[in-house]
Amino acid sequence: MAVRPPSLRARLAATALMVSTLTSVVLVIGVQALLARSNDASVDSRLTARNAAAAATVVVRDGQVHVLEQSATTLDQNVWVYDTQGRLVEGSQPTGTLGDEVTALSDSTTQQRVITDDVSLLARPVVRAGEQVATVVTAADLEPYERAEQHSLWLSILLGAVTVVVATLAAWVAAGRSLRQVQAMADLADEWREHDPAGRFDPGPGGDEIAHLGRTLDRMLDRIGDALAAERRLTDEIAHELRTPLAVVLAEADLARRTATADQREELDSIYTAALRMRDSIDTMLTVARAHAGAAGRATVGEVMASLGLDATPYDDEVLAAPVAPLAAAVRPLLDNAEVHGSGNPRVEVSREGRTIVIAVVDDGPGVAADDVETVFTPGHTTSAEGSGLGLALARRMARAVGGDLVARPGPGGRFEVRVPAR
Q1: CATH of 8-147 given 3.30.450.20, 3.40.250.10, 3.40.50.300, 2.60.40.10
Q2: pLDDT number for residue 86
Q3: Helix-, strand-, coil-residue percentages of the chain, each rounded to 5
Q4: pTM of the full predicted structure?
């Protein structure tokens, strides 16, 4: 089973989802990196300030290190002062892993920074008169900063997820509103195809890209209409120009047949038959031209059947969005084809599929192979020694001229369906 590709609306929403997700991830990472850097700077600043404040209270008296008393007690928290012999001069003796780290820093001769067990330590020597007299070690608890980073991370993730959802929904809604205009234009074009080939979008001056698209399509439709009109005029003129000399050929051939010998009559019959076939082809060309010219009208299936000499009674209620002439011209070659390839008793079936009327011509002949369902409509393709290969091609053109189509169904027994929009 073929996988249906995603709609344009879904692709736009998916693009918005990917872009907003990537942007949110980059922002979350960036915010966390900036917050971590800010916290590190804050901790460093706090440790340095406290260490400097504690170092300012260190004095040397009689060769001994002393710490001046301070009115503020904050310097006593997580601050240790050691003399050069590693003796603790100020601060309570730390214990555990923290105590080991502080003790290891007590004899530092240079500034050192150590992080252990969510605690940041800073050791700086105290110098008096160009000589180190003590070492001050300060500590800062990192847990509040880490907790703030965690809260910020979860908040950033939540805001990023909300942003992704909102951006995706906004893209879905915006794409839906824009594409509804395109869908309305497509529906309008389908309506024109069936009922008003001369219709135009006419969005007026200004507007957005959709209005610009409408004006562009209107110009394209004008050019197509002009080209089709020129083609119709040329076809009509050629057909009319050919009918006069062809009528002379038919008349002369018929007259010659009446007075010809038996040997001459066979050749004249071939000429007369070929001329008749040419006249039918010209009539079909004229019918196509008139159908393309927008011979707007409607017909019942019964009227089409009656024009073909078939029983019309059961089909009077089925109304087609097309005139009788081109439809009859599309079905007639199918009946002739069924006569040639079947046993001479073709069957016509009429059914309805939604807004489409299906007129099927069925015979008991060999049918059409699955590989040939399109080839049989190629001009010049024929399996009959006497055929020209134009009947099915012209029949399909007739059906499409009025907004319908002609298709062949594979399988044993020939089945050709003329599919026409219902009124």
Answers
A1: 3.30.450.20
A2: 84
A3: 55, 20, 25
A4: 0.51
